[in-house]
Design a protein that fits this description.
The protein is of the alpha+beta class and 269 residues long. Helix content is 51%, strand content 13%. The strands form 2 sheets. A 5-stranded antiparallel β-sheet has the order 1-5-4-3-2. A hairpin with a 2-residue loop joins strand 3 and strand 4. It binds a DNA duplex (13 and 12 nucleotides) through helix 6, helix 12 and helix 13.
DNA sequence: ACCCAGGGTAACT
DNA sequence: AGTTACCATGGG
């Protein structure tokens, strides 16, 4: 039985959450509606006052997307705590409504390998071509490729993605995970430092890509990915280090800061 | 034509 | 241990 299902989440912003650079497979369809994929799961979702609506969804999908959108976490309380810090208070006002999506580890890892030395627009393009090339075709679009399918692709097969030097990194990730040398279900159980070191066994996965995979794919909100924007923000706002309350929610704080400094940049240019 | 992008690697001091 | 050139590609 398919229905429109309302999920309450006070203050959530789909626009900010879906396009703040943590996920790359969502698009606006107008009128406050969005559509996208998580792995092979497709949904149309719309922005409501203090929540979202899942369109044409059943109970199984309700459970899946509630987890994906991190509905049960009290962001009001977290943002309240973070607002004790003056910089965070300003950043949250400019970028409120962001939730950290609970994405699949494999999809996040592959996506952020592609992200390196790249911009969000082109990352989305490469991932889109990745799905068209290796993902299963469905009625609503292409699913994210399975590990098995990626692992058997050669360099020639990757050419249509135009991923540049990242191709061999993607192939190394697929090889190591496929062979069992790296087990993502084990990574999910490791403490964050051990998990980071494990992911960094993959060629092309350094500390930043690993932290992105951990934050967005394994919900490690203590992981603090430092890209060029965050490095600038930390130097400007926290030259003497992070206050404890920001440290506690580093991943969430980081994403709010990322949005804040990027939109501030856009506004002034 | 140059610089930059949700960086990492390898080869240098 | 800390720099630096280089890596593909596309947009500004």
């Amino acid at each position: 039985m398919k229905n429109d299902i309302f999920l309450q989440s006070n203050g959530i912003s789909l626009e900010k959450t879906l396009f703040c650079g943590q996920a790359f497979r969502w698009e606006r369809t107008g009128g406050g509606k969005f559509q996208g994929f998580a792995l092979d799961k497709y949904i149309v979702v719309s922005q409501e006052e203090n929540g979202i609506i899942l369109h044409n969804a059943d109970e199984t999908e309700k459970a899946f997307w509630s987890n994906y959108f991190d509905i049960q976490t009290d962001y009001g309380a977290i943002y309240g705590e973070l607002s004790q810090d003056e910089t965070m208070s300003r950043a949250i006002k400019a970028a409120s409504g962001i939730r950290i999506l609970r994405q699949d580890g494999f999809e996040a890892l592959i996506s952020f390998i592609i992200s390196q030395n790249n911009n969000i627009k082109r990352i989305s393009g490469i991932i889109s071509r990745l799905c068209e090339t290796f993902g299963e075709k469905t009625a609503n679009g292409f699913a994210f490729p399975t590990l098995k399918r990626l692992a058997k692709a050669n360099e020639e097969a990757f050419a249509p993605l135009r991923a540049g030097f990242r191709t061999r990194y993607l192939m190394d990730a697929a090889r190591l995970i496929s062979s069992g040398e790296i087990k993502l279900e084990e990574v999910a159980k490791m403490d964050t430092d051990t998990a980071r070191a494990e992911l960094m066994k993959i060629k092309g996965v350094g500390i930043k890509v690993a932290d992105c995979a951990l934050l967005f794919g394994f919900y490690r909100i203590d992981a603090l990915p430092k890209d060029v924007w965050i490095k600038r923000a930390l130097a400007e706002f926290y030259p003497d280090g992070l206050p404890p309350v920001v440290e506690k929610y580093a991943g969430i704080a980081q994403q709010v800061l990322f949005e804040y400094i990027r939109t501030r940049e856009k506004a002034t240019v």
